[in-house]
Amino acid sequence: MAETSRAGTDVTVSETSPAGTRTHCPYCALQCGTLLGGARGAVSVSPDPDFPVNQGGLCQKGWTAPAVLDVPDRLTTPLVRGADGQLAPAGWDEALDLVARRLGEIRDEHGPEALAVFGGGGLTNEKAYALGKFARLALGTSQIDYNGRFCMSSAAAAQNAAFGVDRGLPFPVTDLGDADVVLLAGANPAETMPPLLRHLDRADLIVIDPRRTRTAARAALHLQPTPGTDLALALGLLHLAVTDGHVDKTYLGERTEGFDETWARAVTWWPERVEAVTGVAVSELRSAVRMLAEAERAYVLTGRGAEQHSKGSDTVAAFINLSLALGLPGREGSGFGTLTGQGNGQGGRELGQKADQLPGYRSLTDPAARAHVARVWGVDPERLPGPGRSAYELLDALGTDGGPRALLVLGSNPVVSAPDAGRIARRLGALDLLVVADFVPSETARMADVVLPVAQWAEEEGTLTNLEGRVLRRRRLLDPPPGVRGDLDVLHGLAVRLGEPAARYPRRPREVFEELRAATAGGPADYSGVSYERLDRGEELYWPCPEGSSGTPRLFLDGFAHPGGRARFQAVEHRDAAELPSPDFPLYATTGRVLAQYQSGAQTRRVAELTEAAPEPYVEVHPDTAARASLADGQLARVSSARGAVLAKVRYEASLRTDTVFVPFHFPGEGRANLFTHAALDPRSRMPEFKVCAVRIEAAR
Length: 701
Prior knowledge:
Layout: E1 16-17, E2 20-24, E3 33-37, E4 44-47, H1 60-63, E5 79-81, E6 87-89, H2 92-110, E7 115-119, H3 125-139, E8 144-146, H4 153-163, E9 181-185, H5 189-192, E10 204-208, H6 214-217, E11 221-223, H7 230-243, H8 249-255, E12 256-257, H9 259-266, H10 271-278, H11 282-294, E13 298-302, H12 304-307, H13 312-325, E14 335-338, H14 345-348, E15 357-358, E16 362-363, H15 367-377, H16 391-397, E17 406-410, H17 414-417, H18 421-429, E18 433-438, E19 450-453, E20 462-465, E21 471-474, H19 487-497, H20 509-520, H21 532-536, E22 567-568, E23 587-592, H22 608-613, E24 618-621, H23 623-628, E25 636-640, E26 645-652, E27 660-664, E28 693-699
Parallel strand pairs: 7-8, 7-17, 9-10, 9-13, 10-11, 12-22, 13-14, 17-18, 18-19, 23-27, 24-26
Antiparallel strand pairs: 1-2, 2-3, 3-4, 5-6, 5-19, 15-16, 20-21, 23-28, 25-26, 25-28
């Protein structure tokens, strides 16, 4: 299953060099290596030329990241909402005492399940681990999930089912540099993670996207399906792989199981039927399969465009089926992977802040897993709650009968990022207590009863795990501003006030990581062989990395992580999106990111250079579609669904499908794209359907 890494060498990488402090960009899951220098108010950043993932490159967000450290509205003191309804400065003891007292009162009155925690995919490994422990022990609640449920959950479900383990890329990013062909299904790295393109320059790209994105514009072949039909497209590609004679029969017989049942589903997706459903020409379908099959080194990669659907898990499964039929996964120089989005989207989902997981990617329902983690935590396994609600279900239950009455939010901004955002804002408003730890007054923080100011990326130590499963060191350049504390300090302070032993919640990241190593030992995501010392020596450590090992850069070379070592095909069938266009809402709407902004925009919208590049919400519309609605380029429009409406300026885009509009989701207020998105959930992953819903567009009145 493993290949020995280059880890274990005698190379030493100092925490600081003449060029600055070695750390990593605070944004996407590439976690580009950076060098920081200077003092507060004058921090400089440059790419680390020795880090192989970004190879000396940074995107616009990375170059401007230091500006976020000193934004004018940086929070530096706790805020407590007074009797007048206004947030006012308070001392730390006052704020923490208030939060602990109210949590205790709500728990006494309604039980521990009335308390909830919502985390984030940008938290360090140490904070994600501590947050899960805090929720399950200090609060005693099962009600914890995180915004990564909106990002990677469908890909995780499909990869676990097929391969027995979920790691975004089961091979180093640098392997892509030797690819002949790369298929990108619903991924736009030219805008979401530009340094990745350095590894894709050699390959012919096949891009599947309803929009002609910057990535699609670079492609050798762009397939432009109707939104919500990616699954039908993938089934059609598998059909052609079989009927055109491209299946690797030796690989199927030796390394997989379940093909016959899968083929029984795909056999009905003949090319003409696929063209009728997706709008993609038969000739283009054949070209895509032929390019993949004839390449010596080929990869299939999925992104949010394929995953953020009510059938996202099945869609990813269908692309895995295609890659297995062609014999790609577990073969050096080829493979299947998913492009993780958030900075610690990988580590964040395997260390315990997910509703159904314990550290090490262990299942919360596995008695052996519960016993192992309980032993590390020094408690009886019976004390650990069972699985809780998934992210959207948790948010949608807030303030309802039987739902949580109090919520602690770390590293997330659901007022902007959650689907059907207007509904979620109302649910947050129904809480008895909302506590938000953040460094700026995000849209969610502005609704809070208590706001706790916490440290930023360049002000803290820790580790993160990037999209290829490589564990990385985050290093501190600056002390936090006076009055600001770390998230681990916050959790420690609350836990002690709730009656927990102080020693159970270390404040130092290194101490938390040492415990994390023990808690993950023997699990699918085993970090027990990783240490700060090894990382600081420059060792390249990919999980699983058991004690005494050198890590696993490439998974599956010797077998997959199922009993017997075989990958499993998944028999899936196409189904429509939860909501299709109608006379009242005749267009498809899809959402996504743009180069200059990130996630909910709470960070990037405060950087002048980025705001200048992408200052406001807009809606891309084909000129013919705009003309039918009597909309001029640059005119303010209202984009409405059955759930809500967004105000955005019209931007003509002749390459867009005439039945589709696109709105970026980074903006607040009436520009929130998630005011119109649909919350239909994938039955396996509980991923909401962000990528397709029915809307109409008209002039704003």
